[in-house]
Specification:
253 residues, alpha/beta, Rossmann fold, six-stranded mixed beta sheet, four-stranded antiparallel beta sheet, 30% strand, globular, binds adenosine-5'-triphosphate, binds magnesium ion
Length: 253
């Protein structure tokens, strides 16, 4: 399903955070949003999810303005994995993943809801901790559980805000590979990432945000030394070998 961001502006308490953001994201795209801390990545993702309302402009999911979708329909269409998951009431991993089925449940989960939650727990290798309280997990395990909960929604669009920040190299690859496979089947992925190398490896499109505006937007060809040096105000080398193109930060300016 496509996402159309139409000239949005967003302010927190009157101070502008996003300006002139315009982009068209097609079904099956894998879009990475990169940019310095505070550039507006999380805010843009929250606008796409409808948690925040832009001061100007609009967001369309499929053919419809996001404001015209019912919350239940939106929750079946779009899943969101936030950057921060602070303060949880006690719940097991299984119950947390099952919560992802909420948009489909009337008053009690069906056998197929239970089956979806169990399947995703198995796919993400969470069986051994399925009965544990999520408050007693490591940061990376918790992050994986919240990705599992989003997958249980069986959405057409997934918005993920730095989902691999707490993950080790292996789990990072597992999650990214899984998202890529789902994308190949039509899922639309929008992911805020700090790791520009991961973005280049997986994304079909890259949006660079700087101070709340789109600094560059396109394919991997926009990732050049000049652009990255300007975006992050550092010195960068872009190198190529038989495993692909790699960005190496070499120092401060
Ligand atoms: N709830 C809030 N109230 C007021 N200002 C906020 C709020 N959340 C974020 N901001 C401000 O909005 C700007 C953009 O923040 P945002 O979280 O979108 O950045 P980001 O690109 O996701 O950064 P990071 O890479 O650190 O996650 C920052 O200047 C931040 O201080
Ligand atoms: Mg953020």
């Amino acid at each position: 399903m496509q996402i159309s961001v139409r000239d949005i502006e967003f302010s927190y308490n009157g101070s502008p955070v996003l300006q002139n953001i315009r982009c068209e994201i097609s079904g099956g795209d894998f879009i990475a949003i990169v940019g310095p801390n505070g550039s507006g990545k999380s805010t843009l993702i929250k606008c796409m999810n409808g948690i925040l309302s832009p001061r100007k402009g609009s967001i369309h999911i499929g053919e419809q303005n996001i404001r015209q979708h019912s919350l239940r329909h939106l929750a079946r269409t779009m899943a969101y994995v936030p950057q921060k998951n602070a303060g949880h009431t006690p719940a097991t991993v299984f119950d947390t993943v099952l919560l992802g089925r909420k948009p489909y449940i009337n008053w009690k989960p069906s056998a197929s809801d239970m089956e979806v939650a169990s399947r995703i727990i198995a796919e993400l290798g969470l069986e051994e901790i399925a009965s544990k309280d999520i408050n007693k997990l490591s940061g990376g395990q918790q992050q994986t559980v919240f990705i599992a909960r989003a997958l249980a929604q069986e959405p057409e669009i997934m918005l993920l805000d730095e989902p691999t920040a707490n993950l080790d190299l292996r789990h990072t690859l597992e999650i990214m590979n899984m998202l890529q496979e789902l994308c190949n089947k039509g899922l639309t992925v929008v992911i805020a990432l700090h790791d520009i190398n991961l973005a280049m490896r997986y994304a079909t499109g890259i949006m660079m945000l700087k101070e709340g505006e789109i600094y560059a937007w396109g394919g991997k060809e926009i990732v050049t030394e000049e652009i990255l040096e300007e975006l992050y105000d550092i010195r960068v080398q872009v190198m190529e070998n038989n495993t692909g193109v790699h960005v190496v930060p070499v120092g401060l300016k």
